[in-house]
Amino acid sequence: MREDLLHFIWKLKKLQGQTLRTFEGESIVIKDFGVHKQLAGPDFFNAQIKIGAQLWAGNVEMHLRSSDWYAHHYETDEKYNSVILHIVWDDDATIFRTDNSQIPSLQLKDFISKTLLNSYAELFSNKRESFINCGGSISEFDGFKFQNWLERLYFERLEIKSIFIDKLLKEYNQDWEQVLFILLMKSFGTKINGEAFFEIGKAIPFPIIRKLNNDGFKLESLLMGVAGFLEDDSILDDHYLNLKKEYGYLSIKYSLLGTSHLKPDFFKLRPHNFPNLRLSQVAALYKNQEHLFSKLMGAETLDEINDLFTVTANSYWTTHFTFGKLSKKQEKKVSKSLVELIIINAILPLKFCYDRSKGNESSKSIVNFAIAISPEQNSLISNFQDLGVSCKSVMDAQGLLQLYNSYCVKNKCLQCPVGISILCRNS
User: Fold this and answer.
1) Are the C-beta atoms of 277 and 332 separated by less than 8 Å?
2) Each residue's pLDDT tens digit, 237-275
3) Burial group, residue 285, by CB count within 10 angstroms (0-12, 13-18, 19+)
4) How do strand 20-21 and strand 83-90 relate by DSSP bridges?
5) Are 407 and 387 in contact (CB under 8 A)?
6) CB distance 226 to 205 below 8 Å
7) Helix (H/G/I), strand (E/B), else coil: 317
8) Where along the chain do its domains lie?
């Protein structure tokens, strides 16, 4: 039994038509169920309930047990003085407001059908057969409604990412260019080196990038040096030595600290994903593009963004994967798959935050980008597809990730329209 069942019963008005009484025996007539709130304070606001001969207007609070009122110390919290009815599964204690006036209670277990309880229990027992509770029914849910739900979930995911971005903006005094640089660095590092690249991005003040953006060699020297890739005295390669010499000058000029962050790793990476190549590509990106932040925030199509990221690592890397070791000639361009990851993990979350800061409605343009990119493939998405769930875009995939992590895993089925539909259908 979970508290969300009580919310479900009340919110969907499953008590209508029943003769209700408080635990103390007074009649209850519900005039208005109120508005469900998921913020601090009572669960339902502005309800109207006739208890006995008195019509009350106020709020409704719900708990599994009446004694939970005291576990949360509501008897001393003035926010709960407005509660006119305490709805519980088991009324095991009398509760009072701060002025010591008693709050009437409705014990739901006296009024709920066994059919509803059996359906509720069955919903939460299905994980034995599927990786989610509704595995046997999710494909039957209305496709249009499910698509709208995935869109809402995608924006929930953006909201979560925006918390991280807002902290960065606060740390860097609302410097959007600096935050973009840090997010791009993290994305270029991908999963294995994301944290190391993130720390490198934080270690380099963006004004230095801006001053060097007409010189790709100096930018590469800066990034390689801060990453700790120019500290090996045994390498005698000319390009390496020139970078090392240039970084020695830059580190003094800009008072750059030594490498105290994580050093990027080469382990388990394919050569085209080596961190030194990624850093050279970042240098090429900022050499080719002035005002990158403005261009990205103003982009209206994927082609515009792809054009901005059409960059190639320094020509030295055409015949090298690591310093001093020749390899087959091949340009090291930023791949389409990497650009898509950058759009998903850096550009769209930052655009969401930026548009919100300007008071602009950006949902339509963000959705247009998100549905234009093919979904990433992973085991979780495959599991949903095996259940008959369509996943055609990044928005679908990100929505499914949010659904699984924030609802399915936490058994929040009654906060999901799929779970609600199953329980309504069977009760």
Assistant:
1) yes
2) 999 999 999 999 999 999 986 665 788 999 989 999 999
3) buried
4) unpaired
5) no
6) no
7) helix
8) 3-112, 175-358
